[in-house]
Amino acid sequence: MNTNTNTNTGVGNTRVWQVSGTAPQAGELAEAAALMREGGTIAFPTETVYGLGADARRTEAVERIFGAKGRPSDNPLIVHIADTAQLAELTLPLGAEEAALAERLMARFWPGPLTLVLPVKPGAVSPRVTAGLDTVAVRMPAHPVALQLIAESGCPLAAPSANRSGRPSPTLAAHVRDDLSGRIDGIVDGGAAGVGLESTVVEIAGGDSVRILRPGGVTAEALREVAAHVAYDAVAAPGAGMGEGGTAADAAAAPRSPGMKYAHYAPQGLMQLVKGEPDAVSAYIRAETAAARERGERTGVLAFAEHAARYDADCVLVVGSLAQLETAAHGLYGALREFDARGVQRIWAETCPEHGIGHALMNRLAKAAGHAVVRV
Ligand code: AMP
Ligand code: MG
């Protein structure tokens, strides 16, 4: 690193490097890459959210991720690579048809927010990464800082989201600082993350089929352009945990993606999702916020831009636009953290149709609300 051009404003023992999110300069990541090679834990931006990375091959390094996050040890980590050549070091070969589908998925979506669950090569990564499963989840992030850090460190990086476990994922370096300062070795600050929601996790379900284990930045519609069949794990289907399509039992069933069973992304206030016709939703939320204020509670509403003016809660936050749901994906976690910063105790959230990125958005929102959904 060139210390003349980088500001190090770390807290505790956590170094912070400011870098360009679009074109990191040669050498800017050298110190972070060196720390990574030595078994350090470094947070860095990706096109989904900020990740907390460590060398996936070193158990003591990976254990420091779990420790810093307070993450349950049965929740496996995604391994991030910068070059498809690294796949051969990490995974076992697939059958011909599955391999052809995997190739097409990688060609279409990598680098990008698609994670593939593949058979792990024994001994290739720490058993802490796979939580003892015989598969490993791998993706190639579409972010110049992430790609350069992986390449420069020479390590496959195990990297879950860089938040304390249970908190909303970080979309800014400031969120990482709030959660993990003093608990990790460094933060590469490359500005805002991209999509704002985590990757889509899929497994190849035989032949020309993929199964979505966790909805995310790559939509089912986009996957259907590449795979003949796209199925869902029960907990990942549209409607799962939203009181329709799936059921609460689905949401509680043992998912194939272990992380799906955890209450995640939760703000500190109690949140409820409200489904129905927009006018009925607004009327319900206005009545509920008024009643809660009467009781002396600090109220919040998470609304789409089109409806925000309808509410007069203590804290009305616009998640994004219904007409452009990508903006809502981008804004969700920041908004959940903002409710916490403003001490909001009760939150009502509008909902959107579960297609395209709306599916992943509602999946995260339902989890943030602990699956408390009311239909009006
Ligand atoms: P996070 O790192 O917080 O984005 O979470 C990673 C997600 O990938 C969690 O939902 C994990 O359960 C899932 N995952 C990681 N490895 C595997 C695997 N080998 N099989 C199935 N799901 C996995
Ligand atoms: Mg996470």
Automatic annotation (TrEMBL):
GO CC terms of this entry: cytoplasm
Swiss-Prot/TrEMBL GO biological process terms: regulation of translational fidelity; tRNA processing
Residues annotated as binding L-threonine: 48, 80, 139, 159, 199
Pfam families in the record: Sua5_C (PF03481), Sua5_yciO_yrdC (PF01300)
Its job: Required for the formation of a threonylcarbamoyl group on adenosine at position 37 (t(6)A37) in tRNAs that read codons beginning with adenine.
PANTHER family: SUA5 (PTHR17490), THREONYLCARBAMOYL-AMP SYNTHASE (PTHR17490:SF16)
Superkingdom of this protein's organism: Bacteria
Protein name: Threonylcarbamoyl-AMP synthase
Family indicated by similarity: Belongs to the SUA5 family.
Major localization class: cytoplasm
Domain YrdC-like: 26-218
Binding site residues for ATP: 71, 75, 135, 161, 169, 214, 265
Subcellular location(s) of the protein: Cytoplasm
Catalytic activity: L-threonine + hydrogencarbonate + ATP = L-threonylcarbamoyladenylate + diphosphate + H2O
EC number: 2.7.7.87
MF annotations from Gene Ontology: ATP binding; double-stranded RNA binding; L-threonylcarbamoyladenylate synthase; tRNA binding
Keyword list, A-Z: ATP-binding, Cytoplasm, Nucleotide-binding, Nucleotidyltransferase, Transferase, tRNA processing
